[in-house]
Give the backbone structure.
Amino acid sequence: MIAYYNGHFCDKAAIVISPDDRGFLFGDGLYEVMRSYEGKLFELELHLARLAYGLDQLRITGVDLGQTGAMAQELLLKNSLLQGDATIYLQITRGVAERVHHFPAAGTPPTLYACARRLSPNRELPLQGVPVVSVADQRWSRCDIKATGLAANVLASQAAKEKNAFEALFVRGGFWLEGSRTNVFFVKNNVLRTAAADQFILHGVTRAVVLRLARSLGIENRESAVTTEEVAQVEEAFLAGTTIEILPIIKIDGRTISGGQPGPITCRLRDALRHLTAGLRVS
Amino acid sequence: MIAYYNGHFCDKAAIVISPDDRGFLFGDGLYEVMRSYEGKLFELELHLARLAYGLDQLRITGVDLGQTGAMAQELLLKNSLLQGDATIYLQITRGVAERVHHFPAAGTPPTLYACARRLSPNRELPLQGVPVVSVADQRWSRCDIKATGLAANVLASQAAKEKNAFEALFVRGGFWLEGSRTNVFFVKNNVLRTAAADQFILHGVTRAVVLRLARSLGIENRESAVTTEEVAQVEEAFLAGTTIEILPIIKIDGRTISGGQPGPITCRLRDALRHLTAGLRVS
């Protein structure tokens, strides 16, 4: 596999991350997972805008994001991923320096690492739906920064797996915010609901696309997290993310919702998103 | 510099951390910073107990902690650090695996990395004291796990540095909990106070030693965080940590405390800790 590392393309197996990399020592970095359909990057600008925001918030400097799209395309080409679907993983850290908590000397170059891999989407799950479970949100209070310090997400995701659930939903102060690696939407009283894009959730690219599609389809929507009380009464729910697109939720904490079937609003949005990406495939 | 990596001692520059190491991708790991005085490890058992606790909480398996003391001693020997003071940094991650949030397959070996470096303690700061600033605590709610996802600590530490302060103190819900890399103690109405060892602070080794010393010296003490209201009335304050030992605080958010001098209870504890470690030096 050909990967990208600090300005060069090379065999992934040849990459040497230093034990003094701040990504390794401090989780002091950011990441993005982008998606390609037949070699075309989905919503590149939204990914780059979020990355720029994260770099600004963490005050990591010295990254030329203008090259990111071309780099991702080159990764697809070099790995024979221009046909079919693929994901591009990109990570940026504050670079290599002797271990002290505060920032290293100005001019310390950040670490840039990226790789691409083939994605073979599960064709059944978007039709059947998936079960999810809730977990207490133990994450930090800057979930809007797509940082690599993901231990809480790892533990939540593992908890879901052990309960045969597809995803774990973080609940903080009674509000159902998002999944460990996806955003979550609910439908209640025919209104589409998802948590507001504040500092407690990741501002998902697919989340933004779903809201755009909802508006264009005339689906009433509100950026306001549902509460534990409200979750008991939702008509529909689904997960949204770059890798999974839209996955209907049919079970929450063991309780069947939406009659165990993807709901009508979920299906409309799922199909609209599929239509959008199908356009990328053929264009 | 000779470091330790997955069972072997080698030149630190030869160590290759994989970009698929979960420490790099997810901050999915733990660390310890131990201290030696003339080649003798300080409170090794407390460090190992905390490490065992963290491994248990994160459910990282396959680590034989029984070898840690000997490994640390060997690092000191191989780096000519048996004389003088040194710190030993140890990091354990959940190992190398293709990037998915949940745990990798059982049997995936964890990554173990350690290195040692000379410590030249500042002789003036324990006598003069240091200024600190407060920051909003944005960390996760499992600060009792000494995990490597330290972005919030990095930002706090940098904020302190930019205000010419030695340390940033995390304040959560009005409670002054600990520093970005140290624990904090206050003296109010002649009672020594530090936050209780719950999930919102690191259970510091030096913190435990300070409480032990306080008890043996007959200093009244209480594990209960001071509030913002109380901080305005404290008589003394100090930081405690493996690397810094005890450092008096003489300024909080720009306001001089304790008359700008280390307070009497602070000095008694600082000197008692120094006496303890001096014993290691000569034994």
In short: Residues 176 and 226 of chain A are 6 Å apart (CA to CA). Chain A touches chain B through 51 residues (CB under 8 Å). Chain A has a mean pLDDT of 97.
